[in-house]
């Protein structure tokens, strides 16, 4: 298993290939249908008050029951992946098959898509701290900053290839 610590640098991704098992530690941001389109608007308006350069974003809601990835190919989520990758996000974590255009945009921006097991209890045990950083009115779909240790995943899209 290859260990990744956020924030991620381009060189960190060069040693990864599709199918590699990884574990991510450090800070992971969360977002899904309600938060990610709003995040794009904040970036476009230069209104974001935290840095996404080298960030990882998990497509999930956050509740006391835990975190588990949602389907990433929903329009509200997948449509944000190219823009967020262009603006510094290096790892997108979720589940599901992404379009060929999204695969190409990930390759162009040296970003990757990671799938992780949809097991809320397992993933919740890896969260050391959580803090709402944006869109609090969205409840569990607000954007959170998670301090995590050893979130497991498999590289699903990288270098223009997909499993």
TrEMBL record:
GO molecular function, one term: L(+)-tartrate dehydratase activity
SUPFAM superfamilies reported in the protein's UniProt record: FumA C-terminal domain-like (SSF117457)
Pfam families: Fumerase_C
Entry's EC annotation: 4.2.1.32
Domain Fe-S hydro-lyase tartrate dehydratase beta-type catalytic: 8-160
Keywords noted in UniProt: Lyase
Family: Belongs to the class-I fumarase family.
Name of this protein: L(+)-tartrate dehydratase subunit beta
Native organism taxonomy: Archaea, Methanobacteriati, Methanobacteriota, Methanomada group, Methanobacteria
């Amino acid at each position: 298993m290859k260990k990744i610590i956020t924030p991620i640098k381009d060189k960190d991704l060069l040693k990864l290939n599709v199918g590699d098992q990884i574990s991510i530690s450090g800070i992971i941001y969360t977002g899904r249908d309600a938060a990610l389109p709003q995040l794009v608007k904040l970036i476009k308006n230069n209104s974001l008050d935290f840095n996404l350069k080298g960030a990882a974003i998990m497509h999930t809601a956050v509740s006391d029951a835990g975190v588990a990835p949602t389907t990433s190919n929903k329009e509200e989520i997948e449509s944000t992946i190219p823009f967020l990758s262009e603006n510094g996000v290096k790892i997108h974590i979720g589940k599901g098959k992404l379009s060929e255009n999204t695969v190409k945009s990930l390759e162009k921006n040296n970003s990757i898509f990671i799938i992780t097991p949809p097991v809320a209890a397992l993933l919740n045990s890896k969260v050391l701290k959580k803090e709402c950083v944006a869109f609090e009115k969205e409840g569990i779909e607000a954007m959170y900053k998670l301090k995590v240790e050893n979130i497991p995943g498999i590289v699903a899209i990288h270098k223009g290839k997909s499993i």
